């Protein structure tokens, strides 16, 4: 009698194990546990290759982003008393290495002149005007991807204003 009870318990235990095995091999047509594991290993290998490719692509994009012009400083001003508004400007565009350019525009009644000065490691190729130096300082202090803007008021004073969250005491 004890052997029959033991046999019944073993049968019940085997049935539960078969249900668990069926759950593990679900989706594998007539597959054994070995076939399921091989399929999973193949998937893991493929995903590891995809992750490595994405890591390479990310590294390339990060290197490219460091060289992009992401810090911007803009100073608008009025250099001549006979023109209205702050239509002249100095614009500094920098990458993460402080390489870039300062572009300035002087607007007068009859003409507008545009100048550009290259920057290498933050050093200009030519002497900067006060407004260009201010635009460069604003760009250096700007958060990545944001524009730091300063407007000078016509009376010779300055009024600072910022776009994108940076505050400058221009």
SSE diagram, text form:
Layout: H1 2-24, H2 33-66, E1 71-77, E2 88-94, E3 100-107, E4 112-120, E5 123-124, H3 130-141, E6 147-152, E7 158-163
Parallel strand pairs: 1-6
Antiparallel strand pairs: 1-2, 2-3, 3-4, 4-5, 6-7
Give a structural overview.
The structure is a single chain. This protein is of the alpha+beta class. The chain folds into 2 domains: 2-66, no CATH class; 71-163, no CATH class. It contains 3 helices and 7 strands. Strands 5-4-3-2-1-6-7 form a 7-stranded mixed β-sheet, with helices on one face. The termini are far apart. The model is unreliable at 155-170 (pLDDT under 50).
Query: What's the SSE pattern?
Result: HHEEEEEHEE
Global outline: rod-shaped
Q: What oligomeric state do these chains adopt?
A: single chain
Number of domains as seen in the coordinates: 2
**What topology, given as strand order, has the largest sheet?**
5-4-3-2-1-6-7
Q: What percentage of amino acids are in beta strands?
A: 25-35%
Main pleated sheet: 7 strands, mixed
* Mean of pLDDT: 83
Question: Could you tell me the radius of gyration in angstroms?
Answer: 34 Å
User: How many strands appear in the DSSP assignment?
Assistant: 7
- Total helical segments: 3
Low-confidence runs (pLDDT<50, min 5 residues)?
Answer: 155-170
In percent, how helical is the residue content?
40-55%
Instruction: Supply the helix-strand structural class.
Output: alpha+beta
């Amino acid at each position: 009698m004890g052997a029959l009870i033991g046999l019944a318990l073993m049968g019940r235990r085997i049935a539960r194990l078969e249900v668990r095995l069926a759950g593990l091999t679900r989706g594998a047509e007539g597959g054994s546990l070995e076939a399921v594991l091989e399929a999973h290993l193949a998937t893991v290998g493929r995903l590891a290759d995809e992750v490595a490719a994405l890591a390479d692509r990310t590294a390339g994009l990060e290197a490219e982003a460091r060289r992009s012009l992401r810090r911007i400083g803009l100073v608008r001003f009025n250099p001549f008393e006979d023109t209205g508004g702050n239509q002249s400007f100095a614009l500094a565009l920098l990458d993460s290495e402080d390489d870039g350019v300062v572009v300035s525009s002087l607007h007068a009644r009859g003409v507008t002149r545009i100048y550009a000065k290259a920057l290498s490691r933050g050093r200009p190729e030519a002497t900067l005007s006060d407004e260009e130096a201010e635009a460069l300082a604003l760009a250096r202090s700007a958060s990545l991807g944001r524009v730091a803007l300063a407007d000078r008021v016509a009376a010779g004073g300055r009024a600072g204003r910022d776009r994108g969250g940076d505050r400058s005491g221009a």
